[in-house]
Amino acid sequence: MQLADRVFRLGTETAFEVLARARKLEAEGKKIIHLQIGEPDFTTPKNICDAAIKAIQNGYTHYTPAAGIMEVRKVIADYVSRTREINVSPENVVITPGGKPIMFYTMLALIGKGDEVIYPNPGFPIYESMINFAGGTAVPLPLREENNFDIDVNEFEKLVTNRTKLVIINSPGNPTGRTISKKDIEKIAEMLKNKDTYILSDEIYSRILYDNAECFSISKIDGFKDRTIILDGFSKTYAMTGWRAGYGIFNTDLVPIISKLMVNSNSCTNAITQMACIEALTGPQTEVDKMVAEFKKRREVLVKGLNSIPGFSCLTPNGAFYAFPNISKTGYKSKALADKLLLEAGVATLAGTSFGKFGEGYLRVSYANSIENINLAIEKIKDNLK
Ligand code: PLP
User: Fold this and answer.
1) Which fold has domain 5-44+286-385?
2) pLDDT tens, position by position, 305-316
3) Residue 272: CB partners within 8 Å, gap ≥ 6?
C-alpha cells in the first residue's frame, strides 16, 4: 500500500495504546490498576444526562449548523465571558466533538511550511503531532522540574523568531499538573506584543484547580483577545469524555474557516450532546465542586505515596489530575519503567516520553482512581522495585 507522506508525520496519544494493552492483560486474567487514565472516573452528573434524554424526546436528532446550535453557542459565550472576564459573542464560538479538534483545525487553518509553532514539552502529544502533520516546524519549549515545570520566560524569548506563527500554552498543564502564573503569562504577552503570532490557549483543565491556583487566560491581556484561540470543553470538568463536547473561541475572521473545516469533517457536533451542554453550564455546579474536592484528597495521597517510593520524587501539582514524578534515580528510563510496572506490578502509568523528549526521567500518574487503588498501586510499585 502506497500511503500519503503526511500520515508518517502523525504522532499518537499513548494513553489509548496503554489502555488497550492493559485491557488485553485483563482479558488474560491479570489485575491492572489504571493510573494512566486521562479522564475523570466519575459519572456524568444526572442533570446533564436527563437534559440529553429530553433533547432526544424533543427531536434534537438531526444535523445542526456546523459551528453549533446558536442557543448553545450563546451559553458558551456567556460562560467564557464570565470566567475569563472578556467579551465573547456567540459568533466567536465553534462547538466541536471534544476539545481535540480545536488543535487540529487551528493547525490546519494557520500553519504551513516554514511556520514555527512553540509548544510545551513535556506537553499533550497531539500538539507536536498536529504541528508536524500540518507541515509546520515544531519548536519545543522545555518545562523543567528545577523550574517547578513553569515556563522559563528567558528561554521562551530565545525561541521566538519572525517565523513564530503560533504559541501553544496549556494551563493547568498535562502532564505536569502545573498552572502558569499570571506574571509569566504577562511576560509572554509582552514578548509577543509586536509579533504577528497567534496563541492557542488550551484551558481544558481550567476548572480543576487546587490551593487557590488560578487559570489566567492570555486572552484577557489588552490586544490579545483576537489573537488567542481558547480551547475548552466539557470532557474533564463534567466527566463527559465520551460525549465528545468541546469548543474553541476564535476571532470572527477565523470562525468561517474553522466552520468550513467542521463541514468538511464532522458536519456538526452531536445535537443531543450540544443540548446537554446547556445544562452542564447553566445547571447546578455542585458535582464539579465535589469532584475537585475528591481529586484534591487523592492528590495528597498520591504525591505522598510517590515520594515514599525509593528512587521517586514528586512535586505537588496545583491543577488537573496528574502527578509527574521524577523516576531517574530508579535507574530505569521512563518507557522501560512504565512497561515493567504494567507487566510485572499490574500498574498502568504513562512514560514521560509519551509527552515529548523532555519527559525522559518521569512518569505520568493519573489520580482519576480511588484512594484505595492509589494506595494499592504505591505498594505494588514499591514491591516491584525492591
Ligand atoms: N487538551 C489537553 C491538554 C488534554 O489533556 C486533553 C485530553 O486529554 C484535551 C485537550 C482533549 O480533550 P477532549 O477529550 O475534549 O478532546
Assistant:
1) Aspartate Aminotransferase, domain 1 (3.90.1150)
2) 999 999 999 999
3) 52, 55, 56, 60, 61
